[in-house]
Amino acid sequence: MLAELEAYQATALSALGGAADPAALEAWRIAHLGTNGTLKGWLQRLKEVPKDERPAFGKRLNEVKSAVEGAFAARRDAVGTAPKGPPLDLTEPGTAPTVGCRHILTRTIDEIVDVFGRMGFSVATGPEIEDEWHNFTALNIPSGHPAREPTDNFYMGEQGGLRRLLRTQTSTVQIRAMEASRPPLKICAVGRVYRPDTHDATHFSMFHQIEGLYIDRDVSMVDLKSTLLQFAHAYFGPEAEVRMRPSFFPFTEPSAEVDMKMPVKGQWKWVELGGCGMVDPAVLEAVKIDPEEWTGFAFGLGVERIAMRKYGIGDIRWLFENDLRFLRQF
Ligand code: DAH
Fold first, then answer.
1. Domain 104-327 class, CATH top level
2. Distances (CA, A) of 294 to 40, 183, 279
3. pTM of the predicted structure, to 2 decimals
């Protein structure tokens, strides 16, 4: 066995001499010094050696081990290790780190809320899963009204005797704000709303609205129009204009559609942005606010409308596909 060990040392060392590059050297290391390598095998075979010969054999084995390991270290210094990557060229221009950016809708929302914040509106929120009371009844949308049709809503089952649904409008937050605090009240609310629309370039089953509500003594239509005009000037610039067209919403009386003249790809154009009006007395009564003492206005604008026109985005679906090539443009 001792002779075999001597032979092993000779073979191992001669194989090492033949390892001429880092890859060959590494293969040799694994074969001989690795966890399942031949040297480990020899250490295990020590048990087979008769007891009285074992000390001498063990001593020799240790010498072989150091010789082989020593030779490997020397060989590695001679051959060198594999380079870790491409050579470093200090004269090359650096690569700039990629910085993320906010989604164009998030940015639009933040900017809009910022403007209303400066006009004294505080931010209110409400749940996206709503009940019939907040989405319809308190907003003066009676049972049997077509807006409650199952085909126009995502109903989600009942709770406490009220059907629940994904809210179809942020007007729900008006009700929640008036239930939570007494007037005077000046809030805005932004968020997602849901309608079972077939997806196309201008329709998506989820989109965003910004809602405004101001309840105080002697609030009039003039306050409504001047608030919208101030917003338009602050957000789109001093040339912006506001136009109101008579309309109907159950929760406002009188009601109007809001158009704003805004820059669309460099040209000032009228764009229909949403609805507004004076809060209907029936809505105030639903939340136990005395309509003889308090009056108010409300408005609701489409965030995607604003962003798409302002940035020339031709398809609402692009906003929600998360294609980085699209998102990185803004
Ligand atoms: N909730 C309406 C919609 O989704 C928009 C709206 C109209 C909101 C008039 C209002 C309002 O607050 O006064 O179509």
1. alpha beta
2. 91, 8, 10
3. 0.73
